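request received
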Amino acid sequence: MAKEFELTDAMRSRIGDQSPPWTHEVTTTSVRAFARGVGYTDPVYFDPEAARKAGYPDLPAPPTYLGTPVFIPGVCSDTFSGPVEGRPTVDHGLKGLLDGGTETEYHGRICAGDRLEVVTRLADLTVRESRSLGKMLIVTQETTYTNQHGERVATQRSQVIHY
Amino acid sequence: MTIQWDQIQEGDELPELHKKPGVSQLVKYAAGSGDFNPLHHDYAFPQAQQIGSIIVHGRFKYASLGQLVSDWLGHGGRIRKIACQYRGMDMPDQEMVCGGRVTRKWEEEGARLVELELWTRNAEGKNTTPGAAILALAR
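response:
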């Protein structure tokens, strides 16, 4: 827990940094795996025939599922599955980590068969104080998802809390 | 069942989604999402020992709010935006109720739109995941 924490110019200078693009795949198997993980029973997320009857070309991505990052050992995080290098980061020295919130805006449809190009940008840094955690650094990241046709299908904003 | 525009009224509550995710469910979610943070499956992990338990992924709760909305929509429209905040930890094998309410219904530029307030309620009645969504209903 940090009693004192201030944003420095060096930290602020990272705002706008962005990651190199990385591919997320959306496949029938990955959609099923996510839908199972959440606990869906809706056949539209499991059975391509049911998906087509509901008007989709193939299994649709369930809400909040934006594909699975292509995993390459040594390149990707063994814990979080995405690439380790090139993610926009801030040197802040805080040890605690919490997920603050997530917002996903959909601009188009995502279905099995899609390959999404994913870019994460460091959108904002703010400092807040909480009674239980002390001074907190809130990092807002904005991630864009563009499909194989060059269509931006989703934008996700997430807040990570360092304390 | 597909929801019909004419049936929706402001103030309507969505049918609740009751969950009690155990370790096995969280392991399935880890595999499906690619988030293998041991805090969500390994009781020996230091942060889990500090807390006294593993905890449910915040993103599992977010995805469950998505499921609540998807089940209600019945593919009769699409989600334009869905958001939540992680305000409290949920432990495995505890009752978690996902709920939602229609806060606004309107038409704009030919689109039929619905705004929802969303939440997850734990066994103590606390809302640990307040959220919101905007949906576009099929015409």
